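Hey L., structure's done. Input below.
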Amino acid sequence: MSELIAALSAIFISAGAVLLVANRFSLPTIPFYLIAGFVAGFAIDDVNILLDLAQWGIAFLVFVFGVGVDLPKLATVFRDSESVAGAQVVVVGPLSFAVGLLLGFDLLGAFVFSVAATLSSTLVGTGLLEVEIRNNLVHGRLAKSIHLLDDFLAIGLVLMLSVATFTPDAVAAQIGYGVVVILLALVIQRHFFDYLTKFAEGSQELMMIGAISLLIVFLTLSDVVGISPVVGAFAAGLAIKRDYTQNLGMLNGIGSIKDFFVVIFFVTLGALVSLPSLEVFVVAAVLAVLTAVVKPVVTMLTLIREGYDVRTATLTSASLDQISEFALIIAIQALLINRITPDLFDAIILAAAVTMVTSSLTRRYDEWIFANVTGPVLGDRSTRKIDDQSRVDPDLTDHVVIVGYGRLGRRLATVCEEEDVDYVVVENDPALLASIRSDVDNYVLGDAMYDYVWEKANVDDARLVLSTVSQSRVSERVLAAETDAEVVVRTEDPDEMADLRGAGAAFVVVPDLLAAERLDEVVADMLAGDLSPEELRERHLAEIAEIEQNDLRSRTDDAPV
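Output:
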């Protein structure tokens, strides 16, 4: 126990020191965590402690990822994700397996090498995609659904490689136990988790205790049936319903747990990195190239073949260029039972650390990669997905283009209908397609950053462009559209308002300022006696009812298309 406490102390002291530097200069934290781990590794003598910490760190983080899985939303891009995951398995898998054999590994060693090259990390990829996923951007959805498919494949491999005796019956039994555990989790999420919510009666503390209890139950169940705790942790995450209207406090608490184990995982990974021999360095370099170059290229070409534009394909592939934490679990288990050599394990650890660093950089500069590499090379060639999922009258003129079909976008569409003005909705969230098709006559489902989307929306002949998206990048692209129409954009940052006005915006929507102005008007009316407390209360209740109705409609629209 004292050795474990000493190891954790070294991990968090070193992590805290480097995090000060990363925050001071606004740098990605993952490289600094790995550096901290490499330094802390000299103070930790027992490698088995590091291996245990790595496995439990991965288990808890996989639990957090399972909680974040929103199957209905991911289902909207699942078919395309299946194509990408299939291409990775069919192309990258055999290629890397052959490379492993050429490097001198036996069949099992080459297989573990190919698994490391093929699977992508949900911890790094999804962590870097949080904003995109929250904003319902299609490349975020694509990447997360591909990660999920990779994880299901990895779980099967973990179950297969964790058997004591490698026989068909033993492997079938392990896979069967894993399937039963995951199905049980899905049943709990669908049919029983609401009872926990009702029992808690709004207490987020009770909800949090219930979520942790579910995790403990599934970890115990995994131990009883003899499968990896990582599988149980993932199943426990799937058992928890992601409902921000009722479970926000619980979900925030789980997010805090994630932050704790993120430090443990990445610092432990850095501590497992050792000074490599020439042979280990060569193997790690080859594995890093397969993971960070070959796999993204295969991903990008597959998405383009499926009809996606080059930008979406580029940004998605930039989130799939790292080694999976499940590959590390497989490598750790294989090392502990002497099925792979220590040199191969060291090479996988080194390549994982390198690709997790490079992945944080490619995500930061993915727009630069598109603008200077993939865009000029591949051009604006793939528009089939936009054509198939759009409907615009080619003769439409003097219309309004509304970017985004959330709550504000719907209200603007209603205003246009009341004023009998034609409009086109531009939306990038596939989950809203069914709602748009039923509500809107003219729409374009595509990325507003892509030129063809604006061409499809007949922006040249529009009278007004209204963007409800608060991202600076989108606002700049809207203002750069070649049109004589007046442009209205949105920002959450009041300091950005002057820059957007200077860039040509006729009006900049700042929600906080508008809310403050609305409050000023209400207070002035009350003080002047023009608005009684009863009238204010009735009007406010009516507005709340309208908002709740719109929220309910939004959640309904998130059903699979």
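Residues 131-136, 552-561 have pLDDT under 50 and may be disordered. The first helix runs from residue 2 to 24.

-- N.
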